Amino acid sequence: MIKEIFFTTSNKNKLHELKKILPIEIKSVELSLEEIQETDVQKVAEDKAKKAFELTGKTVMVEDTGIYLDCLKGFPGALGRWMEKTCGYAVLCDIVKFNKNNSVVTKTCFSFFEKDLCQSFLGETPGIISETPKGNLGFGWDSIFIPEGSEKTQAEMLPEEKNSVSCRYKAILKLKEFLLKA
Predict the structure, then answer these.
(1) Reported CATH class of domain 4-181
(2) Name one GO molecular function term (predicted).
């Protein structure tokens, strides 16, 4: 039975959210992990989980997330953080308008590493990019992402509403199911 997991994050909100949902003790560990340049969030998360385990020798978990635009054949994917740093996510509104295709899928992957076991949990949410950023809740692409079946961006949704559609929350629920069986 797994007693505790070390979650590699410096984001206190992510840690707090996981502690409320997962049935295990979660501790934060800040590590500077070199990230492979890859668009696939699962490959990035698994690589970081292995590196985190090698550095700590403890049961670890990492998270990676991405936004996959149909009009750009899945770009930026897991490289979204670099796009945000250089030009911001709002530029995606212009890109989808220019390409006349605003379809997108968001993905979050939690990868868990213990001894020689790497287990990954992927959550996906299809949707569209809004014409302009809207809302001030959330972070990252929340102000431009409208989940399928909604008329609001995630940044316009209350936390409970966002959790019902969020790729991150879907991945957390899969992780929770695994931990309850472990």
Answers:
(1) alpha beta
(2) nucleoside triphosphate diphosphatase activity
Domain ranges of the chain: 4-181
- Cβ–Cβ < 8 Å for 23, 176: yes
- pTM for the whole thing? 0.92
Q: Return the half-sphere exposure (C-beta side, CA atoms, 13 A cut-off) of residue 89.
A: 22
Size of the chain, expressed as the number of residues it contains? 182
The tens digit of pLDDT for each residue in 8-37 reads 987 777 888 888 888 889 998 889 888 899
Q: Report how far residue 74's alpha carbon sits from residue 132's, in angstroms, rounded to the nearest whole number.
A: 20
Task: Quickly list H helices, the chain.
Answer: 12-21, 41-56, 80-86, 91-99, 159-163, 167-181
Identify whether the C-beta of residue 59 lies closer than 8 Å to the C-beta of residue 6: yes
> Which pair of tokens denotes residue 43?
């490959």
